[in-house]
Amino acid sequence: MDRVELRDDLPTPELLRPDDVRIRVRAAALNHLELFVVAGLPGVTITPPWVLGADATGIIDAIGDSVTTLAVGDSVVVNPGLSDRTCEYCRAGEQPLCPRFGILGEHHPGTLAEYIVVPAANVRTIPASVSAEQAAAFTLVTLTAWRMVVSRARVQAGENVLIWGIGGGVALAALQICKQLGARVWAVSGSDDKLRRAAAVGADELLDRNKVDVPRLIRDRTARRGMDVVVDNVGQATWDQSLRSLGKRGRLVSCGATSGPIVQMDARKLFWYQWNIMGSTMGNDAEFDAVVGELRAGKLLPVIDSVHPLAEGRAAFERLQSGEQFGKVVVRVS
Ligand SMILES: [Zn+2]
Q1: For tag attachment on the chain, is the N or C end more exposed, with fewer CB atoms within 10 Å?
Q2: Ligand 1: distance of its center to the CA of 89 in Å?
Q3: Rounded distance between C-alpha atoms, residue 330 and residue 334, angstroms
Q4: 38 CA → ligand 1 middle, Å
Q5: Nearest 5°: phi and psi at 232?
């Protein structure tokens, strides 16, 4: 974390391609991803000074010659996932599968800056009624959770969904989406305070992982049926419990492994119980349009933990690293 500092000597980025836009950033938000970038990711070489941050909202300040869908002065949010838009996956509308897929702040300069330059295809307008803090906190977690819950796991009304690590941004967005779909959500945390707050967001069942055996309690309370869906972004520390919580025909969906990447599975249970184990990363253009539609309608508004001025950006990172946050850590830029 000592490597995170505020720099006032970086040049204002210029438009590189005719389909680029430049955004004057009003607010940005942190994601767990940034902690990995700061700590060092295998295969990702960061050369300081490197601008962190994937999420941003702001006002368009310049547009390239071929941009027709956006205008200077528009209030916008950004899809942090960049793709080449030419490969077979991109042409099929599945941009997160692009071989050249990259994320702002990890593979491209990030959003914790006064100005960012991104392709117009990654930008959508939002109404002035959405606050800068909410808009900044919204995109990455809601887009990621939407793809997991709606497109991949296809959660249905009345289904039981277990969500680990409630308090994290993706987990909270998944909770909100599941409730909107009419599912029953079982939220897990090691913190009483986070569980109480999850109940206020809509969680139906609250499980303190330090006090109960999660899979056993689920078996008891569901007459041994188990969960229809498990959302597990924790990985190594929870994987076995996730599988023991999963019912027949259950779906496990993962978009992260914050506790460690290596997991084990008994293949006999996989085929006998006819499970589906699914991965998910970020979201495609159609999913981005869908979540921006929710934001424009004032739905799925993100839970915000704290807002920090850019000058105190280090404090925002320390808050994220503490693991004590409930919801998004936002940085106010201008
Ligand atoms: Zn592609």
Answers
A1: N
A2: 6
A3: 12
A4: 27
A5: -125, 105
Beta bridge partners of 52: none
How far is ligand 1, taken at its centre, from the CA of residue 317, in Å?
32
* Confidence (pTM): 0.97
Is the torsion defined by CA of 185, 188, 192, 194 positive or negative?
A: negative
> Comparing C-alpha atoms, which of 310, 39, 280 is closest to residue 173?
280
Q: What is the DSSP pairing of strand 20-29 with strand 328-332?
A: antiparallel
- By the 8 A CB rule, do 76 and 123 touch? yes
Centroid of ligand 1 to alpha carbon of 278 (angstroms):
21
SS3 5: coil
**Which residues sit opposite 277 in a β-bridge?**
252
How far, in Å, from the CA of 96 to the mean position of ligand 1?
8
* Residue 156 identity: Q
Q: Output the CA 90–ligand 1 centroid distance in Å.
A: 4
Using a 10 angstrom Cβ sphere, with 0-12 exposed, 13-18 middle and 19 or more buried, the burial of residue 242 is: buried
pLDDT band for position 83 (cuts 50, 70, 90) = very high
Q: How many whole angstroms from 67 Cα to the centroid of ligand 1?
A: 20
Asked if residue 227 lies in contact with residue 162, where contact means CB atoms within 8 angstroms, the answer is yes
Can you tell me whether residue 303 is helix, strand or coil?
coil
- Distance between Cα 129 and ligand 1 center (Å): 34
Question: Phi, psi (5° rounding) for residue 247?
Answer: -85, 180
Backbone phi and psi for residue 219, each to the nearest 5 degrees, phi listed first: -60, -45
Instruction: For the beta carbon of residue 18, count every other beta carbon within 10 angstroms.
Output: 11
Give me the helices (H) in the chain, please. Answer: 32-39, 88-91, 132-146, 169-181, 192-201, 214-221, 239-245, 267-272, 285-296, 313-322
Q: Which amino acid is at 282?
A: M
Q: What is the pLDDT of residues 306-329, one digit of tens each?
A: 999 999 999 999 999 999 999 999
- What is the per-residue pLDDT for 145? 98
For residue 212, report the phi and psi dihedrals to the nearest 5 degrees.
-130, 155
